[in-house]
Amino acid sequence: MENQETTRSSLFWKRVFNWSGVPVSLALANFIQYLLNPKSSCWYFYVEAKWFEIGLNIAGGILMYGILFWIIRLIFGWINQKNVFRNHMLLHFLITTGVVICCMFLLLYLENVIYDWNYPQTSTDNQENEQSLRSYLVVNVVVAAFVNSFYHSYYFFEQWKAKVIESSKLELFSHQLIENALQSELQILKLQLDPHFLFNNFSILTQLIETDKKAAQEFLANLSKVYRYILATGKKDVVPLTEELKFLETYFHLIKIRHGETIHLTANISDSDKRKGIPPVTLQLLLENAIKHNISTIKQPLNLTIESAEDGKIVVKNNLQPINIDYKSTGMGLKNILERYQLLEGKIPEITKTASSFEVKLPLLNVLVAQ
């Protein structure tokens, strides 16, 4: 409701400026010209001419500035639509100012032609009239440039305000996501998620909001999907493998932002296996487990594969390149997976470790999934 009121207020002031800007600009141009040359003979026109002629003269000025305002709005509308010069404010200002000044010269020329046609007896040969004409041209061009500058100020203010609002929405959504994560702390602990998972991702999100808002939006969207999946499956014992793979793909986007091209993931699962079940977040736990215990660099990337195997199982495998530090693993991730499989059907995953690889063979379950 507040956003609607703000939009209505913004539209109202735009209309006020558009409707009042034309007569105000015309009055300003004449006022400046009068201050520069109050004794010019052109002012006697308003004393000697008929009301009809005066009205026609004012209407001509309003028409000229009305066309100018329409041209300026047309230029800014085109710029907004094509999204050009968005990051080049000075170039944006110089080009539009040049176009506006050229248009103003053209309008003044047409006005002068029409005036000479209506008043052929008026001579512009004497020095006074030439001086008045020059000042008239200069003043109107300056006013046109001023109007364009005002439009620019308003335009860039709106752009800045939109960016501030967008940034505020991202931060607000981030806070809401943190709050939701805290509210679901029991489920997260139940699934034995890595406690660093929260802090790493929100730290990355904070950095992206400050440097790359588009990337922050994408990161936030994927992070939101991850938590929605965790909350949705918190009370489920088994989920379809196809859902788990979609979740893993979303989760892997977050991993790629953290680790870049140092980690690769390949999945090759048959359609029949995708319709079977698996304990929720099992693949995510195995992925985190591999990342936690292995080196991953551009020259030595960590390669993970998920493939269908015989006897209704899938194999999750990664190349083994252990971290060369004194690191004592708690084994909570693998223990969590083994215990949940034991409780569900008594089927135990097979773990195979060689000098070059680490492999976990997961049985696919036929347990009915609660919808």
Topology order in helix (H) and strand (E) letters: HHHHHHHHEHEHEHEEHEE
Biggest beta sheet summary: 5 strands, mixed
> Low-confidence parts lasting 5 or more residues at pLDDT below 50?
182-192
Examine the secondary-structure arrangement and name the CATH architecture of the largest domain.
Answer: 2-Layer Sandwich
Number of domains: 2
CATH fold group of the largest domain: Heat Shock Protein 90
The Cα radius of gyration reads 35 Å
Order of the strands making up the biggest sheet: 2-4-5-7-6
Task: Write structural notes for this entry.
By secondary structure, this protein is an alpha+beta fold. The chain has two domains: 2-117 and 129-165, no CATH class; 184-363, Heat Shock Protein 90 (2-Layer Sandwich), CATH 3.30.565. Helices cover 67% and strands 10% of the residues. The protein has helices at residues 2-36, 45-48, 51-82, 89-118, 127-183, 185-190, 195-211, 213-232, 241-259, 271-274, 282-293, 332-344, and strands spanning 239-240, 263-268, 277-278, 302-309, 313-319, 350-353, 357-363. The strands form two sheets. It has a five-stranded mixed beta sheet with strand order 2-4-5-7-6, covered by helices on one side. It has a two-stranded antiparallel sheet with strand order 1-3. Residues 182-192 have low confidence and may be disordered.
